[in-house]
Amino acid sequence: MAPSSKKVVLVIVVVVTVAAVLTAPGPALAADLLVGDSQGWRLNVDYDEWADGKDFIVGDTLVFKYAKGQHTVVQATAASFAACSQSNSLGTWASGDDRVPLNTSGQWWFFCGVAGHCEQGMKFGVTVLPVVKLSSSSSSAPPALIAHGGGAAAGLAAAAVAAAAALLF
Ligand SMILES: [Cu+2]
What we know:
Blueprint: H1 2-23, E1 32-34, H2 47-51, E2 56-57, E3 61-65, E4 73-76, H3 78-83, E5 91-93, E6 97-101, E7 106-111, E8 123-129, H4 143-147, H5 151-168
Parallel strand pairs: 1-3, 2-8
Antiparallel strand pairs: 3-6, 4-5, 4-7, 7-8
The chain binds copper (II) ion.
Copper (II) ion binds next to loops.
């Protein structure tokens, strides 16, 4: 009786550990992404090139740095973005050090609201990916977790699952 109840306790501990690893709120998973990297937010930067190949995931934050008064940040709908129009803007920032939390998945569109800057290419769109939670039935880690350093957590979880399996069988 004693050995088997010890086994059960161990399994419960392992399962709780796995759950904690998989559901931990993610400072490690969320990232601050400096728009334009060292060039910041200004004219004559190819922001499509900057965004190309990067992962944007719900919980990440875009950071726009620029000289206050020289530029602004406008979040737009797809149609307004295409027209460089601020009439249906979803948000506007102008502090020079603007943080825009990407809190929903899907397409996000940005441009500078200073006259002429959007037309000159100060604009870009990003696709924000949802956070995919692992479950014990997942056979592989989703790209989002791998891209943001969740590999170690996933590996730990996998090891814990293996340990639980070893105890059970
Ligand atoms: Cu501008």
